[in-house]
C-alpha cells in the first residue's frame, strides 16, 4: 500500500484536509500539512477510527451542496425539454434541441446538425432567420457550449448568445468536446460538481463566464450580475485561506486555465462573471464558447485573451496572453491574513513581551525530543515567538533544537496547554500499534499458553562469587550433558536439572550484577523471573547485597538466596540467614518463604539444590507460561559487533518461537535472522520461550534491554527500526542538552569561561557502554563542570570518532576496544586524547579526577598569626616600617595581611612585603619575637595597630 497524502485522504472522505489533520493530531500522529504523507498503517488506523464518522460528515456536507447542484441541472434540463415539447413554438425547436443535446454532450455533435436540418424546414419562416445562424453555431459549438438552458432560444440569436454562459451546466465541460480548447483536460478536476454549481449560478447571469474567474477568491461584487449570486448562494464560500496559492494548485485544470474559449470571449471581458468563485472555470468556458462565434479571433487556448488585464478577477490566467506569471496576486490575501493575525494578537496575552495566543487547557502530545517548531505547529503559533518567550523565561533554545520535558511543561503552563511528552515506551507502543503489532502480551487464549522455564539473574555484593557461581552452574551442566562442549559467553544460557523426576530447564542471564538488571528495568523490560542473591558466607550481608535485594523487591521478583563459599573455614551461613531476616528475607526453615541454599561455587557444592530451589520457587510463586506458537518477541540481553559476523545480539525469546529466516526488528536494528547459535556454539533452528540465542543478521547493534519482535517482512522491520532510530536520536539530543538558564549563561560569561568535558564512549558490548555512561552521569562535581557524552557506540575506535572528538574537543574513552585503521595516527595529529580502560571503576575514577581537575581551585583563609605594632620607623626609601612583637602564631613574609585598629579592620588584603629580625631578612618570625615589617604600598600605620597575617590555602576537592 502506497503512502497517502493527507489531502488525498481528506478527499476520499469528503472532508477538508484540516479536519483530517486535526484528527490525526488527536491520534497523536505528527503530520505537518495537507501535503504530508501518512504511513499506510496510520491510514488504516485513521480510517478505522474516524472513517465512518468523517465520511458521514462529508456526505452530509455534500448533500447540503447537492440540492443546489442538482437544482441547476434539473432546471437546465427541464428548460430544453420544455422547449422541445410540441407545445413550444416551432421556432424554438432547433435551438432547444441543441441544448438538449448538449445536456448529454456525448452525442453532442450529432444532434446539432441532425435536428437542425430536420426541424428547420418545418418552422415558420420567421423562425428560419434567427434559427439558421444558430443552427450552424450549434452544430459546431454545441458540444463545447453545451449547457445552454432556455435562455438562448428566448433571447434568440447572437446578441444574447454570450450570456447564456448559462452554459453553466455542470455536465457541460466534457472532456475533449471543445474543439477550441487544447488545454481542456480530461476531467482534470474531479471536483466538477462545485464548478457546475458555481457556473450554473454565475454563468446564468454573466455569461461572461470568461472562465477566468477560476482562481479568484470570491468577490462579492461579482454578484452584481444577479445570476451569479444565486448560483453561489447554496455553496460554502471558499475560504481565502484555503485557496490554492497558485493556479498550479488546481492542477492546471480547467479551472486553472480558463483556456480556449475563455480566451476569446469578448464577453469574457466582462470578467466579473468570472468573479464567481473561481472554479467556475468550466461553465465560464461554456459561456465563452457561446461567445465565440461573436468573436472568433481569440487567442485560442491561451485563454484569458483579454482577461480584463489587471483586474483581480483575471489573475491566475494571464500567463499565456501577457507573459506574466499567472500566480494570484497576494496582496489581498496577505492583508486578510495579516488582519486575522492582528485580531488574534489583540486577544493574545503578552508573556515576556511576546504575544502568543493562549490555549484552553487542551492537551498537546509531543514526542520526547520534539522542538519548539513542533510545538508551535501543534498550537498554531509562530515558533519564533516561543523562542522569544522562553528567552524571557530564562531559557535559551533555538526553534529546531530538541527541548526537554521540563521546558515543554513550563511552556505549557505559561500558554495554558496541557503538554504531554509521550514517554518512549508509549511512543514505541504506538509505533508498533501503527503497524498492527503489539509487544508484551501473549496472543490467543489460555489454552494456547505453555509452561516456560524461569529466567534467572544472579546478583550480589562484589566478590561474593556471582561469576564463579554462574560458571560453575554452566560447566557442571555442560559436563554432565555434553562432555567436551565448548561453552561460549553469549550473555545467557540454559541449564537443565532434574526435579521430582522431571527434566526442568532454567535460563540464566549471564551478566551478573544488578547494573544489567536495572538497565533492563529502566527500559521497562523485565527479563528476570527470579533473582538469585549471592551472599558470601564468610563476609555476610554487604551494601551491595542490600542494594540488589532492594532492586529485586522493587521489581517484584522472588528471591532465592545462595549462601556461597561455604567451603571456607570461616564461613557462617547462619549469620547470613539472620542478617537477611532483618531485610525481610526470612528462610523457610525459620518459617518464612525464602529459600536459602548453602553452596560453594568453587567446590561445586549443592549446585543441584540451588537449581531445585529455583524451580520450586518458580512453581510456588509464578505462573510462567507463554504462547509458543505466535511470532516471537523478547528482549536483547547483550549485543556486540563481531569483526567477522557483523552485529551479533543475544536475545531472550519471551513468547512465540523464533526461527531462522524470519524478519525481526530489535530496538533500532533490524534484519533477517541469518543464523542462531546457542551457548555451545551449536546452531539452532527454532528458539522457544525463555530460550536465549545469539542472532546473526542484524543491521546494527541493538542495546541491552531493548525489545525484539518478529514482523511480517523486512520492509516493515526497516520502517520500524528507522522510526525508532530517529526518535532515539531526537530524544538523545534532548537529553544531551544541558539545561542552561540565562542566569547560568550570564554567570559563565562573567567568569569568562564555562567548563565542559566532552566524551565519546566506545565499548566492546553495549552493556558496558551503557554502564559506563550511567555511572558517569552519576559523578557529581557541582554545577561548574558539566560532563557530556556526545557519542557512544559499540566497536573499535574509528577515524570518524576521532573526527568528532577533534571537532568538539572531546576525549575518547575506549572500554575493552582498540583503535581501528589510522585512528591513532589521526588522533595524534588532531591532538585528540584516547584513553583505554578495561575496568569500569578505573575509567570512572579517572574521569572523575579529570573533572575535578577542571574545577577552579577553591581557597580558604588560614590565619597565621598576629603582631602588635610597638613602634614606627619612617624611611624615605621604603616607607613606614612597623616594629612589632609577634603575639601569636607566626608572621610570614609574602603572606597576606590586614591591619586592625581597635579590632576594626582598617586595611585588608595587604602584602607583607618585607620582614626582618634585627638586620636580617627572614621568611618568618614566631610568637614572642620582635620583628620589623612593611606592608606594600601602605603607610598609614599607628602604634597599637595589630597586623594579622594570613594565607589563602587551596581546599582539596573531596
Ligand atoms: N573459597 C571460595 N571462593 C570462592 C567461591 N566462589 C567464588 N570464590 C572466589 O571469590 C572471588 C570472587 O569471585 P567472583 O565470582 O569473581 O565474584 P563476583 O561476585 O562475580 O565479583 P564481581 O564480578 O567483582 O562483582 C574469586 O576469587 C573466586 O575464586 C567459593 O564458593 N568458595
UniProtKB/TrEMBL annotation:
Residues 57-352 are annotated as: Disordered. It is found in: Cytoplasm. It comes from the Bacteria. Residues 198-212, 250-290, 297-313 have a biased composition (Gly residues). GTP binds at residues 460-467, 510-514, 564-567. Residues 330-339 have a biased composition (Basic residues). One of the essential components for the initiation of protein synthesis. Protects formylmethionyl-tRNA from spontaneous hydrolysis and promotes its binding to the 30S ribosomal subunits. Also involved in the hydrolysis of GTP during the formation of the 70S ribosomal complex. Belongs to the TRAFAC class translation factor GTPase superfamily. Classic translation factor GTPase family. IF-2 subfamily. This is Translation initiation factor IF-2. It comes from Nocardioides jiangsuensis.
Amino acid at each position: 500500500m502506497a503512502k497517502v497524502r493527507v489531502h488525498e485522504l481528506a478527499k476520499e472522505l469528503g472532508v477538508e484536509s484540516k479536519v483530517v489533520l486535526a484528527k490525526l493530531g488527536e491520534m497523536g500522529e505528527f503530520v505537518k500539512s495537507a501535503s504530508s504523507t501518512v504511513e499506510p498503517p496510520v491510514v488504516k488506523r485513521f480510517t478505522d477510527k474516524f472513517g465512518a464518522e468523517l465520511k458521514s460528515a462529508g456526505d452530509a456536507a455534500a448533500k447540503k451542496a447537492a440540492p443546489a447542484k442538482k437544482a441547476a441541472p434539473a432546471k437546465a434540463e427541464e428548460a430544453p425539454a420544455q422547449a422541445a415539447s410540441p407545445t413550444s413554438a416551432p421556432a424554438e425547436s432547433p435551438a432547444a434541441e441543441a441544448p438538449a443535446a448538449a445536456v448529454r454532450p456525448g452525442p453532442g455533435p450529432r444532434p446539432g446538425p441532425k435536428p437542425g436540418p430536420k426541424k428547420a424546414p418545418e418552422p415558420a419562416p420567421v423562425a428560419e432567420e434567427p434559427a439558421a445562424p444558430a443552427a450552424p453555431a450549434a452544430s459546431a459549438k454545441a458540444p463545447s457550449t453545451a449547457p445552454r438552458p432556455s435562455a438562448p432560444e428566448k433571447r434568440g440569436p447572437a446578441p444574447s448568445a454570450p450570456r447564456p454562459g448559462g452554459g453553466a451546466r455542470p455536465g457541460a465541460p466534457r472532456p475533449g468536446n471543445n474543439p477550441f480548447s487544447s488545454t481542456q483536460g480530461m476531467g482534470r478536476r474531479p471536483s466538477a460538481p462545485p464548478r457546475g454549481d458555481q457556473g450554473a449560478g454565475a454563468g446564468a447571469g454573466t455569461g461572461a463566464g470568461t472562465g477566468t474567474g477560476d482562481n479568484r477568491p470570491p468577490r462579492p461584487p461579482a454578484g452584481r450580475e444577479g445570476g451569479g449570486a444565486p448560483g453561489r448562494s447554496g455553496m460554502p464560500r471558499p475560504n481565502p485561506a484555503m485557496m490554492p496559492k497558485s493556479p498550479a494548485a488546481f492542477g492546471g485544470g480547467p479551472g486553472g486555465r480558463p483556456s480556449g474559449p475563455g480566451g476569446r470571449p469578448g464577453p469574457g471581458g466582462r470578467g466579473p462573471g468570472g468573479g464567481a468563485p473561481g472554479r467556475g472555470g468550466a461553465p465560464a468556458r461554456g459561456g465563452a464558447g457561446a461567445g465565440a462565434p461573436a468573436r472568433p479571433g481569440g487567442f485560442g487556448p491561451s485563454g484569458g485573451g483579454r482577461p480584463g488585464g489587471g483586474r483581480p478577477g483575471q489573475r491566475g490566467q494571464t500567463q499565456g496572453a501577457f507573459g506574466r506569471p499567472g500566480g494570484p496576486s497576494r496582496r489581498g490575501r496577505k492583508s486578510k491574513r495579516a488582519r486575522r493575525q492582528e485580531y488574534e494578537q489583540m486577544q493574545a496575552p503578552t508573556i515576556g513581551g511576546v504575544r502568543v495566543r493562549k490555549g484552553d487547557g487542551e492537551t498537546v502530545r509531543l514526542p520526547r525530543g520534539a522542538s519548539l517548531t513542533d510545538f508551535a505547529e501543534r498550537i498554531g503559533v509562530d515558533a519564533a515567538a516561543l523562542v522569544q518567550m522562553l528567552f524571557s523565561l530564562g531559557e535559551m533554545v533555538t526553534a529546531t533544537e530538541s527541548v526537554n520535558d521540563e521546558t515543554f511543561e513550563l511552556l505549557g503552563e505559561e500558554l495554558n496547554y496541557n503538554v504531554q511528552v509521550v514517554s518512549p515506551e508509549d511512543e514505541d507502543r504506538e509505533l508498533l500499534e501503527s503497524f498492527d503489532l503489539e509487544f508484551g502480551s501473549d496472543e490467543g487464549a489460555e489454552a494456547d499458553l505453555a509452561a516456560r522455564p524461569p529466567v534467572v539473574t544472579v546478583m550480589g555484593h562484589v566478590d561474593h562469587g556471582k561469576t564463579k557461581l554462574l560458571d560453575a552452574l554452566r560447566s557442571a551442566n555442560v559436563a554432565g550433558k555434553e562432555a567436551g562442549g565448548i561453552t561460549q559467553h553469549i550473555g545467557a544460557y540454559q541449564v537443565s536439572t532434574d526435579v521430582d523426576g522431571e527434566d526442568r530447564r532454567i535460563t540464566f542471564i549471564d551478566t551478573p550484577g544488578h547494573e544489567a538488571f536495572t538497565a533492563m528495568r529502566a527500559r521497562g523490560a523485565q527479563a528476570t523471573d527470579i533473582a538469585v542473591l549471592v551472599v558470601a558466607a564468610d563476609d555476610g550481608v554487604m551494601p551491595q547485597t542490600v542494594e540488589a535485594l532492594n532492586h529485586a523487591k522493587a521489581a517484584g521478583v522472588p528471591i532465592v538466596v545462595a549462601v556461597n563459599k561455604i567451603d571456607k573455614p570461616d564461613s557462617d551461613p547462619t549469620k547470613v540467614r539472620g542478617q537477611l531476616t532483618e531485610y525481610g528475607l526470612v528462610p523457610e526453615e525459620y518459617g518464612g518463604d525464602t529459600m536459602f541454599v548453602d553452596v560453594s561455587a568453587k567446590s561445586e557444592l549443592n549446585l543441584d539444590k540451588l537449581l531445585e530451589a529455583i524451580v520450586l520457587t518458580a512453581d510456588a510463586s509464578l505462573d510462567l507460561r507463554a504462547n509458543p506458537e505466535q511470532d516471537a518477541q523478547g528482549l536483547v540481553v547483550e549485543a556486540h559487533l563481531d569483526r567477522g559476523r557483523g552485529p551479533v545480539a543475544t536475545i531472550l525469546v519471551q513468547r512465540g518461537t523464533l526461527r531462522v529466516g524470519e524478519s525481526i526488528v530489535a530496538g533500532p536494528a533490524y534484519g533477517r535472522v541469518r543464523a542462531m547459535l546457542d551457548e555451545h556454539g551449536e546452531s539452532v533452528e527454532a528458539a522457544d520461550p525463555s530460550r536465549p540465542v545469539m542472532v546473526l543478521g542484524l543491521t546494527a547493534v541493538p542495546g541491552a534491554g531493548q525489545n525484539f519482535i518478529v514482523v511480517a517482512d523486512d520492509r516493515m522491520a526497516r520502517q520500524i527500526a528507522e522510526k525508532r532510530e530517529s526518535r532515539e536520536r531526537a530524544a538523545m539530543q534532548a537529553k544531551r542538552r544541558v539545561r542552561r538558564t540565562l542566569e547560568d549563561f550570564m554567570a559563565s560569561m562573567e567568569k569568562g569561561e564555562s567548563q565542559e568535558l566532552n566524551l565519546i564512549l566506545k565499548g566492546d558490548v553495549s552493556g558496558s557502554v551503557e554502564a559506563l555512561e550511567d555511572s558517569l552521569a552519576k559523578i557529581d562535581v557541582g554545577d561548574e563542570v558539566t560532563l557530556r557524552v556526545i557519542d557512544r557506540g559499540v566497536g573499535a575506535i574509528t577515524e570518524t570518532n576521532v573526527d568528532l572528538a577533534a571537532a568538539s574537543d572531546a576525549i575518547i574513552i575506549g572500554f575493552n576496544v582498540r583503535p581501528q585503521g589510522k585512528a591513532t595516527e589521526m588522533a595524534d595529529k588532531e591532538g585528540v586524547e584516547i584513553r583505554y580502560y578495561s575496568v569500569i571503576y578505573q575509567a570512572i575514577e579517572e574521569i572523575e579526577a579529570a573533572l575535578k581537575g577542571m574545577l577552579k581551585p577553591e581557597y580558604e583563609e588560614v590565619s597565621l598569626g598576629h603582631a602588635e605594632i610597638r613602634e614606627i620607623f619612617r624611611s624615605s626609601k621604603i616607607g613606614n616600617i612597623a616594629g612589632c612583637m609577634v603575639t601569636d602564631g607566626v608572621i610570614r613574609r609574602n603572606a597576606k595581611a590586614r591591619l586592625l585598629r581597635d579590632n576594626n579592620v582598617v586595611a585588608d588584603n595587604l602584602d607583607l612585603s618585607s620582614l626582618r629580625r634585627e638586620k636580617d631578612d627572614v621568611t618568618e618570625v614566631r610568637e614572642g619575637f620582635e620583628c620589623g615589617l612593611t606592608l606594600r604600598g601602605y603607610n598609614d600605620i599607628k602604634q597599637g595597630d595589630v597586623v594579622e597575617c594570613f594565607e589563602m590555602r587551596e581546599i582539596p576537592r573531596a
